[in-house]
Amino acid sequence: MSENALVDNSNCAAIFDFDGTLLDSLDVWDKIDEESFAKRGIKVPPDFADSTATMTPRQVADYVIERFGFTDSPEYLMQEWQDMAFDAYAKHLPLRKGAKNYVDYLHKTGAKMVLITTLSRSLCVPALKRTDLYDYFDLMIFGENLESNAKNSPKTYIDLANKIGVKPSDCTVFEDSATALKSARLAGMKTCGVVDLINGDFDFAPKSLS
Fold first, then answer.
1. d(CA 134, CA 10)
2. pLDDT > 50? residue 1
3. How far apart are CA 87 and CA 114, in angstroms?
């Protein structure tokens, strides 16, 4: 596509999730969950991934302690999971097919580019730099910077729109979490659901940024 054919989106924003949306990473967390639970003699329940999809690492740690009786501190659990994940994020996990080209296209249209992820900065940044996505984003918000309601609340997305100076109706959110997509829609934003075999029952039709 020639640059002359680009739509001018200078008053719009593209808001991306990272884990599972731009980066093909969901299998890694399934394996980490299984290994972490198995060490404690527990099997991962079927609803675990959905229950924790929009949680920050600290919220997940608090959740497993309360629900499953893990005796470790939240800090210990977060460090355990990060150590298990770091090599994959820093060295191995690929982008989803077409992700780099699409981010590059939107960037060239002049759209404001935002990344909002529950992933920690220490895991996300090495992967962004390795895949050459780091410099595309005007604003990046990581798990440790999110409030407790994180992506479960439309307010998160309304506050984000105010921060970047773009009307919610001119923002498009790209996500693999149905909960986050619902929050973004309630905030008045367009949404684009990234579907795979795990979340293939999404009832969210992709929409163009234009």
1. 20
2. no
3. 25
Closest CA to 69 of 40, 39, 104: 40
The CA distance from 115 to 117, in Å, is 6
The string of pLDDT tens digits covering residues 71-116 is 999 999 999 999 999 999 999 999 999 999 999 999 999 999 999 9
Which residue reads 């808001």 in tokens?
15
Q: Is the pLDDT of residue 47 over 80?
A: yes
User: pLDDT tens across 166-203, in order?
Assistant: 999 999 999 999 999 999 999 999 999 998 655 444 44
Quote the pTM value: 0.81
* Length of the chain measured in residues: 210
The greatest distance separating any two alpha carbons of the chain, rounded to the nearest whole angstrom, comes to 59
Give dist(CA 88, CA 20) in Å, integer. Answer: 14
Alpha carbons 111 and 106: distance in angstroms, whole number: 6
> Residues 82-89: contacts with CB within 8 Å, 24+ apart?
82/57, 82/120, 82/122, 82/123, 84/32, 84/35, 84/36, 85/28, 85/29, 85/32, 85/123, 86/122, 86/123, 86/126, 88/25, 88/28, 89/23, 89/25, 89/28, 89/123, 89/124, 89/126, 89/127
Which 3 state secondary structure label does DSSP give 96?
coil
Q: Which amino acid is at 202?
A: F
Give the type of residue at 109.
Answer: T
